[in-house]
UniProtKB/TrEMBL annotation:
UniProt source species: Roseomonas indoligenes
Signal peptide stretch: none
InterPro entries linked to this entry: DUF1285, DUF1285_beta_roll_sf, DUF1285_C, DUF1285_N
Residue intervals of the DUF1285 domain: 13-80, 106-187
Pfam families for the chain: DUF1285_C, DUF1285_N
Name assigned to this protein: DUF1285 domain-containing protein
Length: 209
Protein backbone atom coordinates (compact mmCIF):
# COMPACT_ATOMS: atom_id res chain seq x y z
CA UNK A 1 0.00 0.00 0.00
CA UNK A 2 2.79 2.38 -0.94
CA UNK A 3 0.49 5.08 -2.33
CA UNK A 4 -1.62 5.25 0.81
CA UNK A 5 1.30 5.76 3.17
CA UNK A 6 2.86 8.59 1.15
CA UNK A 7 0.60 11.26 2.60
CA UNK A 8 -2.80 12.90 2.54
CA UNK A 9 -2.78 13.41 -1.23
CA UNK A 10 -3.47 9.71 -1.67
CA UNK A 11 -6.64 9.82 0.44
CA UNK A 12 -9.17 10.10 -2.39
CA UNK A 13 -7.77 8.31 -5.45
CA UNK A 14 -9.30 9.01 -8.88
CA UNK A 15 -11.97 6.39 -9.49
CA UNK A 16 -11.35 6.03 -13.21
CA UNK A 17 -7.57 5.67 -13.08
CA UNK A 18 -6.26 2.28 -14.29
CA UNK A 19 -4.78 -0.22 -14.57
CA UNK A 20 -4.25 -1.26 -10.97
CA UNK A 21 -1.96 -4.02 -9.80
CA UNK A 22 -4.01 -6.75 -8.12
CA UNK A 23 -2.09 -7.64 -4.99
CA UNK A 24 -4.36 -10.42 -3.78
CA UNK A 25 -4.74 -10.63 -0.01
CA UNK A 26 -3.15 -7.77 1.94
CA UNK A 27 -3.26 -9.91 5.13
CA UNK A 28 -5.20 -7.17 6.86
CA UNK A 29 -8.25 -7.69 9.03
CA UNK A 30 -10.83 -5.45 10.68
CA UNK A 31 -12.10 -7.10 13.86
CA UNK A 32 -15.67 -6.83 15.06
CA UNK A 33 -14.66 -4.16 17.59
CA UNK A 34 -13.22 -2.00 14.78
CA UNK A 35 -9.54 -2.77 15.44
CA UNK A 36 -7.40 -3.03 12.28
CA UNK A 37 -4.76 -5.77 12.12
CA UNK A 38 -1.86 -6.34 9.77
CA UNK A 39 -0.26 -9.79 9.71
CA UNK A 40 -1.96 -10.57 13.00
CA UNK A 41 -0.77 -7.47 14.87
CA UNK A 42 -3.00 -4.46 15.64
CA UNK A 43 -2.18 -1.26 13.78
CA UNK A 44 -1.44 1.18 16.57
CA UNK A 45 -1.38 4.44 14.60
CA UNK A 46 -4.91 5.78 14.30
CA UNK A 47 -3.82 8.24 11.61
CA UNK A 48 -2.69 5.34 9.43
CA UNK A 49 -5.92 3.44 10.01
CA UNK A 50 -7.93 6.51 9.05
CA UNK A 51 -5.87 6.80 5.88
CA UNK A 52 -6.49 3.17 4.96
CA UNK A 53 -10.20 3.67 5.62
CA UNK A 54 -10.41 6.37 2.95
CA UNK A 55 -9.54 3.83 0.23
CA UNK A 56 -11.72 1.01 1.56
CA UNK A 57 -14.30 -0.32 -0.91
CA UNK A 58 -16.87 -3.08 -0.87
CA UNK A 59 -17.80 -5.14 -3.91
CA UNK A 60 -21.27 -6.42 -4.78
CA UNK A 61 -20.25 -9.90 -3.61
CA UNK A 62 -19.57 -8.54 -0.12
CA UNK A 63 -15.76 -8.63 -0.35
CA UNK A 64 -13.71 -5.70 0.95
CA UNK A 65 -10.75 -4.15 -0.86
CA UNK A 66 -8.23 -1.37 -0.33
CA UNK A 67 -7.87 0.52 -3.60
CA UNK A 68 -5.31 3.15 -4.59
CA UNK A 69 -4.61 4.44 -8.11
CA UNK A 70 -1.78 1.89 -8.41
CA UNK A 71 -2.85 -1.24 -6.53
CA UNK A 72 -5.77 -3.18 -5.17
CA UNK A 73 -5.89 -5.84 -2.47
CA UNK A 74 -8.47 -7.75 -0.48
CA UNK A 75 -8.85 -7.44 3.29
CA UNK A 76 -10.98 -9.36 5.80
CA UNK A 77 -13.81 -7.66 7.69
CA UNK A 78 -15.34 -9.69 10.51
CA UNK A 79 -18.57 -7.69 10.77
CA UNK A 80 -18.72 -4.05 9.66
CA UNK A 81 -15.62 -1.93 8.94
CA UNK A 82 -16.64 0.80 11.39
CA UNK A 83 -18.27 1.04 14.81
CA UNK A 84 -20.64 3.83 15.85
CA UNK A 85 -19.46 4.79 19.32
CA UNK A 86 -21.38 7.99 20.04
CA UNK A 87 -24.83 9.40 19.30
CA UNK A 88 -25.80 13.06 19.23
CA UNK A 89 -29.39 14.07 18.64
CA UNK A 90 -31.08 17.41 18.30
CA UNK A 91 -32.82 19.81 15.97
CA UNK A 92 -31.88 19.65 12.28
CA UNK A 93 -30.63 22.96 10.96
CA UNK A 94 -29.68 23.76 7.39
CA UNK A 95 -27.66 20.99 5.73
CA UNK A 96 -28.26 18.46 8.44
CA UNK A 97 -26.36 20.33 11.16
CA UNK A 98 -27.73 19.61 14.61
CA UNK A 99 -28.42 21.76 17.60
CA UNK A 100 -28.47 19.65 20.74
CA UNK A 101 -30.89 20.27 23.53
CA UNK A 102 -34.44 19.45 24.51
CA UNK A 103 -36.48 16.86 22.63
CA UNK A 104 -37.64 18.18 19.24
CA UNK A 105 -40.57 17.21 17.00
CA UNK A 106 -39.60 13.81 15.54
CA UNK A 107 -39.82 14.85 11.88
CA UNK A 108 -37.22 17.57 12.55
CA UNK A 109 -34.97 15.44 14.71
CA UNK A 110 -31.42 14.75 13.55
CA UNK A 111 -29.44 11.72 14.74
CA UNK A 112 -25.69 11.99 14.22
CA UNK A 113 -23.25 9.18 14.92
CA UNK A 114 -19.49 9.33 15.51
CA UNK A 115 -17.52 6.30 14.41
CA UNK A 116 -14.45 4.81 16.04
CA UNK A 117 -12.41 6.69 13.39
CA UNK A 118 -14.10 10.00 14.29
CA UNK A 119 -16.14 10.14 11.10
CA UNK A 120 -19.52 11.85 11.58
CA UNK A 121 -22.62 10.57 9.81
CA UNK A 122 -26.22 11.69 10.18
CA UNK A 123 -29.00 9.20 9.56
CA UNK A 124 -31.05 10.09 6.47
CA UNK A 125 -32.30 8.47 3.29
CA UNK A 126 -28.71 8.06 2.03
CA UNK A 127 -27.40 6.87 5.41
CA UNK A 128 -30.10 4.51 6.66
CA UNK A 129 -30.24 2.70 9.96
CA UNK A 130 -31.08 -0.99 9.75
CA UNK A 131 -31.42 -3.70 12.37
CA UNK A 132 -30.79 -7.41 11.78
CA UNK A 133 -31.67 -10.16 14.24
CA UNK A 134 -28.87 -12.58 15.04
CA UNK A 135 -30.17 -16.02 14.01
CA UNK A 136 -28.40 -17.70 16.94
CA UNK A 137 -28.73 -15.28 19.87
CA UNK A 138 -31.89 -13.52 18.60
CA UNK A 139 -30.29 -10.24 19.67
CA UNK A 140 -30.51 -7.13 17.46
CA UNK A 141 -27.53 -6.18 15.28
CA UNK A 142 -27.94 -2.50 14.33
CA UNK A 143 -26.01 -0.74 11.56
CA UNK A 144 -25.86 2.63 9.83
CA UNK A 145 -24.51 3.29 6.34
CA UNK A 146 -21.41 5.50 6.45
CA UNK A 147 -20.51 5.50 2.76
CA UNK A 148 -21.93 3.54 -0.18
CA UNK A 149 -21.45 -0.14 0.65
CA UNK A 150 -19.75 0.58 3.98
CA UNK A 151 -21.54 0.40 7.31
CA UNK A 152 -20.83 1.02 10.97
CA UNK A 153 -22.07 -1.42 13.56
CA UNK A 154 -23.92 0.56 16.21
CA UNK A 155 -22.37 -0.32 19.56
CA UNK A 156 -24.60 -1.66 22.31
CA UNK A 157 -24.52 1.48 24.52
CA UNK A 158 -25.35 3.67 21.52
CA UNK A 159 -28.16 1.33 20.50
CA UNK A 160 -29.62 1.62 24.00
CA UNK A 161 -29.67 5.39 23.53
CA UNK A 162 -31.39 4.89 20.20
CA UNK A 163 -34.02 2.65 21.80
CA UNK A 164 -34.69 5.33 24.41
CA UNK A 165 -35.56 7.74 21.57
CA UNK A 166 -37.81 5.24 19.80
CA UNK A 167 -41.52 5.80 19.39
CA UNK A 168 -44.39 3.83 17.87
CA UNK A 169 -45.48 4.46 14.30
CA UNK A 170 -47.83 2.60 11.97
CA UNK A 171 -46.09 1.13 8.92
CA UNK A 172 -48.01 -1.00 6.41
CA UNK A 173 -50.85 -1.30 8.87
CA UNK A 174 -48.66 -2.54 11.74
CA UNK A 175 -47.40 -0.72 14.78
CA UNK A 176 -43.60 -0.74 14.96
CA UNK A 177 -40.97 1.03 17.04
CA UNK A 178 -38.42 3.28 15.41
CA UNK A 179 -36.66 6.62 15.33
CA UNK A 180 -36.90 9.71 13.15
CA UNK A 181 -33.92 11.50 11.62
CA UNK A 182 -34.05 14.25 9.01
CA UNK A 183 -37.63 13.42 8.12
CA UNK A 184 -37.04 9.68 7.65
CA UNK A 185 -38.44 7.00 9.95
CA UNK A 186 -36.18 4.01 10.66
CA UNK A 187 -37.66 0.85 12.14
CA UNK A 188 -35.59 -0.60 14.97
CA UNK A 189 -38.12 -3.13 16.27
CA UNK A 190 -40.90 -4.67 14.20
CA UNK A 191 -41.72 -7.45 16.66
CA UNK A 192 -45.45 -8.15 16.72
CA UNK A 193 -47.46 -6.56 19.49
CA UNK A 194 -49.95 -8.73 21.43
CA UNK A 195 -52.70 -7.44 19.12
CA UNK A 196 -50.78 -8.82 16.13
CA UNK A 197 -50.38 -12.33 17.56
CA UNK A 198 -52.69 -15.17 16.59
CA UNK A 199 -55.15 -16.07 19.36
CA UNK A 200 -53.49 -19.42 20.10
CA UNK A 201 -50.10 -17.73 20.61
CA UNK A 202 -51.65 -15.15 22.93
CA UNK A 203 -53.20 -17.92 25.02
CA UNK A 204 -49.87 -19.76 25.19
CA UNK A 205 -48.14 -16.56 26.29
CA UNK A 206 -50.73 -16.09 29.06
CA UNK A 207 -50.19 -19.67 30.25
CA UNK A 208 -46.42 -19.22 30.44
CA UNK A 209 -46.81 -15.95 32.34
Amino acid sequence: MHDVTQGRKAEMPPIARSPRTICGDFRMRIARDGTWYYQGSPIGRKELVCLFATVLKREADGSYWLETPAERGRIEVEDAPFVAVELTWGHCCGEGACETGARKPPARQCLTFRTNLDEMVSADENHPIRVEIDPVTREPRPYITVRPGLEARISRPVFYELVALAQPETVDGREVMGVWSQGVFFIIDDSPTPEDLPEDLEELDDEVA
